[in-house]
Structure formats: C-alpha cells, structure tokens
Amino acid sequence: MPRSHLCTNLAAPFAIAMVVAFGSGSAAAQATSPPAVADSIPGISSPSPLQPGDAFGETVTLPERTVVSIKGRSNWDNAFETLVDAFKSLNEYLAKAGLKPNGSFLTIYTETDDTGFSFLAAAPIAKAPANLPKGDIAVGQAPAGKALKFVHRGSYDAMDSTYEAITNYLDEKQLDAKDLFIEEYTTDPVKSDPNKLVINVYVPVK
Fold first, then answer.
1. Alpha helical stretches, state H, the chain
2. Could you give the C-alpha distances from 6 to 167, 187, 202, in angstroms and in order?
3. Residue among 108, 68, 118, 120 nearest 201 (CA)
4. CA-CA distance, 11 to 13, in Å (whole number)?
5. What is the per-residue pLDDT across 81-111, written as a single tens digit (0 to 9) for each?
6. pTM for the structure as a whole
7. Is 172 exposed, middle or buried (0-12, 13-18, 19+ CB in 10 A)?
8. DSSP β-ladder status, 105-112 and 137-142
C-alpha cells in the first residue's frame, strides 16, 4: 500500500502513546505560503479530481490543541471500516463525557507495513475533561509544527494514488519529513458518502 511506502520513505515506523498533530481546515492549519498546486510543478502530477484552490504541497503550521484519541490496529483490506468504528467509539465517549468535538476527526498513522497499520483516531476538544478516560482512550496535547498539506477527494480506497503523488512530491523537492502522517476528514467519515470524502493529508517536515 502507498501509505506503508510513504511511512518507509519518511523513516522507521513511528510509535507514540497519544495523538501528535493535526489541523482543522483553515482555522486550525495556518498557511505560511501560497498553495503549491502539483499540476503546476514540473514532474509532479496530482491525483484527480482536485478542485481549484485545493492544496497539494502547501506549507502550513499545525497549532497545539487538546485531543481525545483511541488507538487501534487494522489490516489494509478493512482499513476504512476499522477507522469508522473507532470514530463511532469516540463519538460515544464524547457524548457520555458531555464533550463536543472542536474540529474535524483525524487519523494519525503511528506504524505501517505491507499488511496493515497502527493508528490513533482522534477528535480535537476545547479542553481536557475533569475525569480523564481510561483504557485505549486518552487525552493529550497536539504539538505545533511545520507540515505539508495535500488534499484528497474521493473514496478512502482511492487514496493510493494520492499517497503515490505525495511520495513523488517529497522526492522531487528533496524534503525531509518526520516519521508520521495525519489524515483530517473535512467530511464526517461516519455520516458522509464514503465515495465523496474530502481528506486533508498532513506530512510534518523537519
């Protein structure tokens, strides 16, 4: 899978105990340079169907925010179904705790290989709850930092071409990326048409 190839290109698999980075549209990920449209860069081809203004290699700054996350493991064949189940579990916890998400759902890939991946499914919240969760659900702070933003439109399975294009972009630009990557779902993965997802992919860079 291209995601495993991307993580291998970034560095050795990265393992963490809590969610580490994210953005929430223009309010959460603050652009520090104009969008880099892949089609305008020689040798780089962005996957379709991107729309005018969609970022593909835009430099942004991910701010620190509080997040609640649930960790899991999946094989690639059942990836989207596993993530949706994780987000449903997060929704259940948030409802019971009386918390409201303060931004879009995130997936942070903490380790990948050819057969599957470990992940944190996360939701930003305004502040940590008084009674912290136990078990697989955790609350933590997302560190700020520089990242590259890439937009994907379409199904989760169709993201293979997006990740291939991201890998080509990093190689072409000779960029040194950190050991993780993040997907931010601007369309709710639980409720939206699974063939019409809009996903921001963030690749933190050194």
1. 2-10, 25-28, 79-97, 159-173
2. 6, 24, 12
3. 108
4. 6
5. 999 999 999 999 999 989 999 899 999 888 8
6. 0.79
7. middle
8. unpaired
